[in-house]
# Entry
Amino acid sequence: MTRAARARTSCSARSGRIRAALGADEGSILPLVVACAALALAVVFLATAATSLYLERKRLFTVADAAALVGAESFALDDVHADGGQLAVGLDSAEVRAAVLDYLAERSTGASAAQAFDTLTCDEAVADGGSARVTLSARWRPPVLAPLVPDGIAVTVTSTARSVLR
# Structure
């Protein structure tokens, strides 16, 4: 046998062994597909939860804005005084808090009761000069992953509104 013939035989024997080794890998793509599907599902669940948390915070901030505005407008006309040629309002923290709590109670029983928060609390409603500052908190529960976070996550927002008279 010539040298070239021996090289061809050796090469074909090696390629036969490689084909036999590769042929034994049948079905090994299934774990890869399952892992990719699980990763994709986890990304979808996390994106859904993050979007839900963002929207819940925006809703809570909207309610806090409205409550702060109600608190800033909770003054009587007798409380308006002239201060250096400008009209100014002296807000009282007790009146601001009472107005904010009334607004929140009315909101939870009114037309927007369907969009009510589970545990909405007014942490702070105070008068700060001519401004009213309101801090609200609520519990957020993820839409899909709720069993993993049974108590939910606290979401807190603060809003300030000012009374301006011209």
